[in-house]
Structure formats: structure tokens, C-alpha cells
Amino acid sequence: MIRFARILVCILLGLSLLLAANEIFVTPPLFTPTFEAHPALVGSWRTEDVAFTVLPNGSVSGRVGKASVANGRMFPNRSWFGRLVRWRTDYLVRGDLSGEMNTYRFTAALNLKAGSLQGALFVVGANGARPRALRFVKDR
Q1: What does the radius of gyration of the chain's CA atoms come to, in whole angstroms?
Q2: Which range, of 1-5, 44-48, 64-68, 98-102, averages the lowest pLDDT?
Q3: CA 125, CA 116: separation in Å to the nearest integer?
Q4: How far is 96 from 64, CA to CA, in rounded Å?
Q5: What is the pLDDT of residues 2-42, one digit of tens each?
Q6: What is the C-alpha separation between 139 and 46, in angstroms, rounded?
Q7: Count of domains observed in the chain
Q8: Which domain holds residue 106?
Q9: Pairwise CA distance, residues 55 & 111, whole Å
Q10: Is 94:76 a contact under the CB 8 Å cutoff?
Q11: Quick check: helix, strand or coil at residue 48?
């Protein structure tokens, strides 16, 4: 009986380590649900000088400062295990920013909380990544 308990504990620990590694190192993690736009996500969102429009198919358009969003895409950013242990954000938006003859990549890690999108925007350019905290409000 003790041997069975030890084997079971080892299996559970190994499974937990695999799930944690998946959540930490894989983007998006395995077991992440396919994107189905929640009705609360679809629409136009804005903050100071950032505006995103999320379409039901997950594509994102808009602007960051004076740069236009191109190839923007929203997708789920965590699996059931990540939600259980509160790792990562609910959604990730990735795309390109084009303006003034430069093209940059951006990533926005966002959570849907109390009717607003909250998170951080990372713009990767010539000087590396510059993070910025955001709180979007949905246009009515």
C-alpha cells in the first residue's frame, strides 16, 4: 500500500511539473481553448493614446500613438491550469505597428475585469521592449 502511494505521489508531482512547464514556456499553452470572442470583448476599446477594435473572429485593428495596428490578433493566453494557479493573463494581442517609415512588433497582455480590459502593452523596437500599463474602457 505504501509503495502504491509513493508511485501515485510521484506521478502527480511529475504531471504538475509538466503542466507548470507548459504554462511557463509555451505561448499559448497547450490545452488553451480556441478563441471564441466573448461578446464583452467585441467592440472598440481605448485608453489615452491607444485604441483597439476587436472583431468576433479575433482580429484586432486600431492605433498605438500615431502608428497603425497591422496583422493584429487576439487569442487566449492561458489554459485551465494557468487560470487555477493564476498565471498569465486571459488574453494576448499581438501585431505590427507601422508608422513614420518604421515597423515595430507589439504585444498586449490583457485581462477582462469589471467591464474593462486591463494589462500591459509591450512595443519592441530598435531600443528593445518598452512596457506600459494600460486600462482600456469600451466605447459605448
Answers
A1: 18
A2: 98-102
A3: 27
A4: 10
A5: 888 888 888 888 888 887 777 777 767 776 667 677 778 88
A6: 7
A7: 1
A8: 2-138
A9: 17
A10: no
A11: coil
β-bridge partners, 59: 73
Set of cell numbers at residue 22? 507548459
Place of cell 508608422: 99
- Number of H helices and E strands in the chain, helices first, is 2, 8
Amino acid at 34: T
| Amino acid symbol at 63 | R
CA atoms of 73 and 85, how far apart (whole Å): 25
Residue 102 corresponds to which cell in the numbers above? 518604421
Spatial separation of the C-alpha atoms in residues 53 and 42, rounded to whole Å: 7
110: nearest Cα among 67, 57, 69, 60: 60
